[in-house]
Amino acid sequence: MTRVLMTGNAAIGEAAIRAGCQCYFGYPITPQNELTEYMATHLSRRKGCSFIQAESEISAINMVYGASVAGARAMTSSSSPGISLKQEGISYLAACELPAVIVNMSRGGPGLGSISAAQSDYFQATRGGGHGDYRTIVLAPSSVQELADFTHHAFELADKYLIPVLILGDGMLGQMMEPVEFKHEAPQELPIRSRALRGAKGRPSRIIKTFTSKPAELEEINWSLFRRYQLIKKHETTFETFMTDDAKLIVVAFGIAARIAKGAIKTARANDMKVGMLRPITLWPFPTDEAQELAKNTKHFLVFEMNMGQMVEDMQLALEGKGEVSFYGRPGGVIPTPSEVNKVISRLYYQKGLK
Amino acid sequence: MEKVYTRPRSLKKVTFHYCPGCGHSIVHRIMCEVIDEMNLQERAIGIPPPGCSVFAYHYFDVDMAESAHGRGAAVATGIKRAYPEAIVFTYQGDGDLAAIGTGETIHAANRGEKVTAIFINNAVYGMTGGQMAPTTLLEQKTTTTPYGRDTNLEGYPIKISEMLALTKGAVYIERTAVNSPANIRKTKTAIHKAFQTQIDNLGFSLVEILSPCPTNWRMTPIEAWQWIDKVMTKEYPLGVIKDVTGK
User: Fold this and answer.
1) SS3 state of residue A240
2) What is the pLDDT of residue A39?
3) What are the Cα distances from residue A212, in Å, to A217, A219, A221, B17, B129?
4) Number of structural domains, chain B?
5) What are A24-38's pLDDT values in tens digits?
6) Global pTM exceeds 0.95
7) In whole angstroms, what is the distance from residue B47 CA to residue B91 CA?
8) Is position B219 within any domain?
9) What interhelical angle do A57-69 and B102-110 show, nearest 10?
10) Is any Cβ of chain A less than 8 angstroms from the Cβ of B117?
11) How far apart, in whole angstroms, are the C-alpha atoms of residue B225 and residue B145?
């Protein structure tokens, strides 16, 4: 398979089509418009597929809900303010155990914020985001290749666990061009999911709903969801480690920030500083066990995020006091450079007496 | 002896939870009669709203999926686009379709989505206890217009069906009522036509049904039926609002 040069946004679109995505519903918002446009060009005329530029993000996510009810692989995408609007629908998808893929090419906030890349939607993504007790799997790619790979994986995970899956990228990943290889061909036909509503032909009628007037019944639905979340934690937690074996300081970063950090770490290594990196790939579930494992040999962790410190809380929770957690972040859509992060690493390295 | 009246096949043998005199049970029944007569039980997918009729899925013996408040038209769009063979209908109240879901409704109609909306207009929010609806009449007292709906403060009763008729994608819109045997029969005919419009793939169809809510109107069922005739139909005249189906 040859590699092609594509923007991150377009790569998600191509990967989604190759994952058998039949329905895409979106609403324009920068910096993810290339994805919506890609789907308009490449999905809308495909047999058995549907593309709609919806009247709002709320409508788009509810169209995804409808398509998922009917058993289709469905997807929507947006950026931070639009993702806020989708939270109602995501809660319903989670409650009704309906698979869907939601892409957030996040930008600076709060409010209308800026259109520059940021990571300030970490809390919203990893805590459910909408109302009620629920989780969504959150995948954090850090390259265009990973955007493509994780998009495919997201559809598989969504179907396997009957859960909405979020891809948390950012405006930089969406806009930049890199070579990408697509490892899958679009399937000819996908099996119809067993719970899908296709009309009560040859079987009793079915209901997809959450509302109940009996709290005990709703409690059982919540227990059932959480049993599945335990399974996901056990089987689907993924992460990358980089030069952690002998590290005295470990940088913890996700998505594009991890890529910036990697550059900084390479410089630090060249200057004889033993620095490594933990990159959570699933932000939920968070790689808690790996953090604990790393804390056996390393006591100093530097969480680096393009926000005011959100994942830092998960790292503190994960370590249970077994390591010291520092934080460096740039909010608002400011993109730090590897040399800037390297300075932070060097300062901390000396301050903690690791040299 | 010939059996001339029986429970429709697609209406489950479950006792309705609706209040005495409520229009929902009448509409449910005639919808199920139409579903049977048109042989749609195996193709229909219904979308009930939050509200009194959320439990419609306990009564209709067809596939049904709950929608978030106001999002019925978007959910119907998603289902129909993913599975065009289905006959998709929403069942929505006035708050659902004409307040919180106005955007979804207008744009589904304008896209000419091949779905059918059954729109229950009872001029009040029922399940939440009788608050003002967008369709609440002028001077009508509700729990949130305790002095009567005042144009200066709350504006005017919205005529969403007439608004929807302006969209090219909407091909059949009729307003009926369920406050007399004659009107119930006309409503049934309208529902039949709305489903036929969808089967023929012509575009968006909607039947607005003026429906009594004696509990929140603080009336007896008989007074409620009379109020529809004397007051509601003056603001919301019955009849075909738009029909470009050519049938």
Assistant:
1) strand
2) 98
3) 7, 10, 10, 14, 18
4) 1
5) 999 999 999 999 999
6) yes
7) 6
8) yes
9) 70
10) no
11) 22
Does B175 fall in a domain? yes
Domain span holding position B209: 24-243
* In A129-271, beta strands by DSSP E: 137-139, 164-170, 177-180, 207-208, 239-242, 249-252
A351: exposed, middle or buried (Cβ count in 10 Å: 0-12, 13-18, 19+): exposed
Q: Which of B75, B89, B104 to mutate to test the interface with A (most CBs of A within 10 A)?
A: B75
Q: Residue A179 and residue A168: Cα distance in Å, rounded?
A: 20
Q: Give the CATH number, domain containing residue B219.
A: 3.40.50.970
Closest in B60, B68, B81 to A52, CB measured: B81
pLDDT given for residue A144 in this prediction: 98
A11 pLDDT above the threshold of 90: yes
Enumerate domains of chain A plus CATH numbers. 4-184+207-236 (3.40.50.970), 240-351 (3.40.50.920)
Q: What is the pLDDT of residue A343?
A: 98
**Which amino acid is residue B41, in one-letter code?**
Q
pLDDT, tens only, B19-78: 999 999 999 999 999 999 999 999 999 999 999 999 999 999 999 999 999 999 999 999
Give the ipTM of the model, two decimals please.
0.97
Residue B59 lies in a domain: yes
Q: What is the pLDDT of residues A132-177, one digit of tens each?
A: 999 999 999 999 999 999 999 999 999 999 999 999 999 999 999 9
Contacts with A, B 64-93, CB within 8 Å: 64-68, 71, 74-83, 85-87
Q: Looking up tokens 């800037």, which residue turns up?
A: A340
Q: Which of B42, B66, B82 sits opposite A67 (nearest CB)?
A: B82
CB B173 within 8 A of CB B165: yes
